[in-house]
């Protein structure tokens, strides 16, 4: 018999519908589709109907009679949250660097002195598969508790073929076993390894000639990401790596204009990247170039918060017509958090976004940033039943009360996974 799940009596259902084909831009980001006193019916993991209580009760009486029932009275229902940018496979921690930064050292100074990404790379290279698997699984378990049901994860703490593959294999194994849907990104171009310090172009060659072919052949990644930054990969090197990835079927993503304005946003627009991430220092020209495309600006205010940097100009970016998503950037150095709801809160308080925009940014637009908008990111007939029930009376509470976990129930593919 088919498994039917019936969620009823929700104070509000935030559906974020109508943007599965194209991401929400400008005013579309703040025009949420809301059903008051709503119900959802799910059959075998797929959404069968979303609507007002009375309508669903009358139209689907037979289904309801055999359904598992969840009463969402006084609570709200949203699509499962989507985090489109994380670095979750790593070993070790960087709390000492945090203290150094509190004392005035910059993130890049620490990295140039062998800390930062290099420190996590050393720790991750030493860790065995099992340890990395268990540590990453624990992090994903916590993401789920905070309402996140789809997560992108990047490699990038290996920086040799063998070590990058180890990270990607951990991601692949978790994809098979973890309730969260995981989307894999290859990021061999996360830092210039110490062995190529004096000849970075040789590392670019190694990525292009040795790493990308194997990653693509083994189908271990869908996306190819580069840290385009002063002292890391130049725009020209980034372009070479991303163009090469495209030839292997890997869609480009860019860590763009995070610390210095290098033109990463323009590069993202030119090469048709699926997303341009960070953008703290993006120029007006870069923002306007992105506005002509459907490239998603993935903004990471947790990173600006934790690095005590200026926040990305989200208001300007949205008003210019760029589709914006939000993400944790979860990693041990620049954003050690697992809370996407806290990032939504920062979106409002530190980047001038409206609560409505942050919901769109953490659901359907985030799904677009990882090519999953056809299956997740909104609550509509035919989509995967990834659903969160929050114990709050209306959606404004999601960004109003901060640092709290309001998740009541998480449903993944029609099954209750957190209650
Ligand atoms: O997105 N900017 C580069 N990469 C990560 C940081 C990774 C780390 O510090 O370990 C980021 O902020
Ligand atoms: Fe990142």
TrEMBL record:
The compartments listed are: Cytoplasm
| Reaction(s) catalysed by this chain's protein | 4-imidazolone-5-propanoate + H2O = N-formimidoyl-L-glutamate
Which EC number(s) are documented for this chain?
3.5.2.7
Residues the entry annotates as binding 4-imidazolone-5-propanoate? 94, 157, 190, 258, 334
Principal localisation: cytoplasm
Q: What does this protein do?
A: Catalyzes the hydrolytic cleavage of the carbon-nitrogen bond in imidazolone-5-propanoate to yield N-formimidoyl-L-glutamate. It is the third step in the universal histidine degradation pathway.
Q: Which family does it belong to?
A: Belongs to the metallo-dependent hydrolases superfamily. HutI family.
Q: What is this protein called?
A: Imidazolonepropionase
- What's the source species for this entry? Fervidibacillus halotolerans
